[in-house]
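[SOLVED] Predicted holo structure with NAP

Edit: marking solved, answer below. Original request kept for reference. I posted the sequence and ligand SMILES and asked for the 3D complex as structure tokens.
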Amino acid sequence: MGVDRLCFGTSTFVSGRLRPGKDPAPGIAALRSAVSAGVRLVHSNPKLGTQWAIRSALDSARATRIRHLVKAELPLDANAATVRASVMRAVDQSCDTLGVQRLHAVTVEIDLKRTHDHAMLMDSQAVAAFYTAVAREALRYGRVDRVIAYCHSPAHLTAALQAKGLSGVAAQYNVAEPWPALFLDRIEGRGLPFVGMSPLRRGALVRPSGHDESNSARSLPAVRWAAADPRVATIVTTMSSPTHVSQVISALRDPLPLASVRHLATAWLAAASPRPLPEGNGWSPLDRLEPFCLPAQEGPS
Ligand SMILES: NC(=O)c1ccc[n+]([C@@H]2O[C@H](COP(=O)([O-])OP(=O)(O)OC[C@H]3O[C@@H](n4cnc5c(N)ncnc54)[C@H](OP(=O)(O)O)[C@@H]3O)[C@@H](O)[C@H]2O)c1
């Protein structure tokens, strides 16, 4: 259990647009070790220039039944022709570089910077129509099995739940941004899986080394938190070394109690409310997990 929920994120695992000087060898070894541990989901973005390394790792691992999720980012105010062309470009480029005929899923993200009509970003009908249009084009193209809406905010997630043709919804999901937990009932009610991305907030939620090093799973309470609710079908994180892969898998296999999810989401809601909070309200997401990380939660040794 655990490995089947893990998706290997690849934005920075080797040299590419975001980390041009990075040594690719440890990242390639990380993907190989993830696959040998049973990971079968890989997420990539054709614009980041790291898909070459995914193919290299998977070819040398002779991996089978790998399912590729690929990002397509478009402005919300793109016209139909631009939507079609952008989706085809992301899919074709990914299939060519990865050496596959089809993709498991496209994860559609609204390009906030290139959306000129800012009013549309506040219009839930426009957001729902966008996801519906991209899903229609991607599925019509025939090289994609599913379309998943990546949502930047609670409002956009609400809108995505009104869209047609989607097979899932995704968002950043971590102890600093736990708000998607408030939607898991509604997402389940729509019959859609939820994909939680960036459980470590790009590394910021890794506990400083030296903290409980005796148990590798304990060093990643943020991953244990992301795994706590079984309705989080998939968790996407980047890992650039085999050691990190084994630590993340250990953490996924040792989820925190479900109550930690409600606890943190409720605290987030209180902190995000427009009412001023009293000084020193103690809002520190990782600290708030401490009571849930007590040794009493450990299974029999
Ligand atoms: N629209 C979309 O489709 C969309 C949007 C956003 C993100 N994504 C995907 O989601 C993925 C999420 O990546 P993320 O980087 O944001 O994930 P993350 O979980 O927020 O952070 C990953 C970071 O944590 C570090 N880490 C992992 N295990 C560790 C360990 N055991 N000890 C210390 N550090 C550890 C990694 O370092 P190392 O690299 O050194 O291991 C990496 O820097 C992206 O790669 C991308 O594929 C997709």
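OP edit: The chain is about 35% helix and 15% strand. Thanks to everyone who chimed in.
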